[in-house]
Amino acid sequence: MKLAIMGAGAVGASVAELASTYGHEVTAIADSNSAAIDPTGLDTDAVLTSKRTSGAVGDDDPDAVLAGTYDVLVEATPTTLGDANPGYNHTVEALERDRHVVLANKGPIAERYDEIRTSERDSDGRVLFDATVGGAIPVLTTIGDLGRSNVTAVRGVLNGTANFILSRMAAESLDYEHVLAEAQDLGVAEADPTFDVDGTDAALKCVILANVLFDGGYALSDASVTGIREIPGTALQLAAEDGRTIRLIGEVIDDEICVEPRLVPETGTLAVSGTQNIVQLHTEHAGRLNISGRGAGGHETATAVLGDINRLS
Amino acid sequence: MSERMVPRAHTVRLELDDEPGKLLNALDPIAEHGGNLLSIFHERGNRTPRGQIPVEVDVEATPERFDRIVSTLRETGVNVVQAGAERYSEELTVLLVGRLIETDLSDTLTQFEHCSSASVADVSLTVADETDEVSSARIRLAAHAGETDRALAAIHEVAAEKDLTVISPLTRGDSG
């Protein structure tokens, strides 16, 4: 398959880097300012080196990418809320050209799911987005295999940054601010951690899950969201004295979407530590399935993107 | 999710002979059958009319496992005076975070009991140091069977009025 990659951050660059090992060819990569386009296939190493050294991926016009030669558009621009652009426009434009779209960008699927499905119906292209929930963990693919009507509820730890902070606070009896600074030093938390610690990122993933489970109709505004900023170290100590701990848990149960810190058994399935994610699928006929693994990172997310691309081949 | 699969807190009252190792022996079946030991109240100063020491043990386990724990205890000769009395009342632990002292914690707890029809069984409090005004409390409540969701909703409401944060356990579905 020929891939056009929009977004040259950690995920876009990793898809470009790994594409050939999956038997695919990259014909375009663009970031917000520059692009490299070659219908016969790009030298991805050269493009990524250029991005690292000069800041630009190439000399081509990013606006020309969507009109170019490709089978699959990989949408890996940063997640935005509300109108979810530019990701939404890229997705719809590629569908109008009857191309497939694989998203790592959560915005369009969380905020404008119904519109994207409508565009997909009018297109020969398909839209897949397994990378948007749980990184490398095949959550949406598993739901697809189970059949969405057989999944009664989903619950999980869906943000590695928040989970890292809570598990460090519990393990080291430290306060939030202290652990956040440490997480930023380690590159686990971004300079502006708002999206992660306020629960927005986990909520977007839950909204996507709700859209998949109930065939659309949900946006971020439908989720009840509480973050972890207000949790003092003492709360984690009190929880630990009782064999429990606190995790930022996202739930989609009875068509309600909720992300908030919850008390969970310290040795329970949901108390994953560090940046690990876990998703529990409650099924109609097969009890509970737990899938855990790395929920973020360039190669991890690219692995899910390339999995989707293989399903389109 | 089957009710039998959901772990919950149970209280077991035992009477043990005052001999070394008796308590430890009595606790073995709990771990053996996958129970989570929550607390032990060992009333050493008290004696039963039969001269034994009463011990109250809180265990978290699924009802199925709890049944096995109790029958194993009895098989090994432990005098189980009361078990599963709490079976149809559910225990619920929440954390409460905020300006707990300034907002009158005892009034908060009274309101919890009043509004949620649950009773406060136990409170552990960590008062803030001077640099941080936020305190935390762990509150164990006993609620009527099947009413934990309603009790939690009432607790959230009372807490919200005082600008306190409630960290609740997982209730619906499974607590795992």
From TrEMBL, chain A:
List where the protein spans the membrane. Answer: none
Entry annotated with the keyword Oxidoreductase: yes
Spell out the coiled coil positions from the record. none
Name the residues that bind NADP(+): 7-12
GO molecular-function term, one example from the UniProt record: homoserine dehydrogenase activity
- At which positions is L-homoserine bound? 190
- Give UniProt keywords alphabetically: NADP, Oxidoreductase
Task: Give every Glutamate/phenylalanine/leucine/valine/L-tryptophan dehydrogenase C-terminal domain span.
Answer: 2-58
Q: Please name the GO terms of the biological process aspect recorded for this protein, alphabetically.
A: threonine biosynthetic process
Its EC number is 1.1.1.3
State the active site.
205
Q: Could you tell me the superkingdom of the organism this chain comes from? A: Archaea
What positions does the domain Homoserine dehydrogenase catalytic occupy?
A: 138-309
Regarding protein family, the annotation reads:
Belongs to the homoserine dehydrogenase family.
Q: Specify the protein name.
A: homoserine dehydrogenase
